Amino acid sequence: MSSSIPLFQKFGYRFSWVGMIGLSIILFWGIMALIAPHIIPHPVGEIVDEDYFGAISSRFWLGSDYLGRDMLSRILMGARYTVGISLAAVSIACFSGIVLGMTAAVVGGWFDAALSRFLDAMNSIPGKLSGLVVVAAVGSSINVLIVTLAVIYTPGAYRFARALAVNIHAMDYITVARTRGEGILYIIGSEILPNITGPVLADLGLRFVFIVLLLSGLSFLGLGVQPPYADWGALVHENIGGLPFGAPAVIAPSLAIASLTISVNLLIDNLPQKIRDRSA
């Protein structure tokens, strides 16, 4: 008996229930990131509880933090920064890496060699170390975080896209396209890109997870999103003192990070079979 969902089978996609669960959680956090300012029960910076690290109650569904602020409101607003910054960074990194990788594979020669060696050198620097150095030196504004994270993960996206593009570029139909006199833009856009879409989407999802974890790590060290704003990593950092009390102020944002990253992995592992077949 097939575990796929009939709704997606009508459109030629075979999507498992596990993939749908992952997709549903991702969509939930994406929607929360968009509508959070309109649904949070309390202003994120307002002290609404007389007791710090307050317990879960009918008024405070996830308790309160170290200052008595509502944790549910802060987690929902934190989704805007965790999801938003990570999505912007991974979009820039993957777009830059894919374009450069395909171009290097098609052009070849000195351009390919020089670009590959330069990005290899960048890739050899540990991501967290370079992120710490840049953010500590320049500052941790949202724009700096996005650019820093994008630069860190562009070399990996480039290597992955170039490896795929080199294999496709060796195919006979690429030779035929060159014989017809097609240019580089046509070969990249019409011949190579459609044939690497599936693996590229999977790689984008993985890099999104890496960026979420790196951003959370930077925020936990105090170098991420700065007060009064906070992403999920910053929420863990500022409430870590409440862990001995068993307060949900530490557990809840940690579970939010885990739910998002695990869901992306579940979705990647259960991509519709039609996408896999197309990219095979």
UniProtKB/TrEMBL annotation:
The keyword Cell membrane applies. Keywords: Cell membrane, Membrane, Transmembrane, Transmembrane helix, Transport. One of its GO terms (biological process) is transmembrane transport. One of its GO terms (cellular component) is plasma membrane. Coiled coil: none annotated. InterPro entries: BP-dependent_transpt_permease, MetI-like, MetI-like_sf. It is a multi-pass membrane protein. It holds the Pfam family BPD_transp_1. PANTHER family: OLIGOPEPTIDE TRANSPORT SYSTEM PERMEASE PROTEIN APPC, PEPTIDE ABC TRANSPORTER PERMEASE PROTEIN. This is ABC transporter permease. It comes from Phyllobacterium salinisoli.
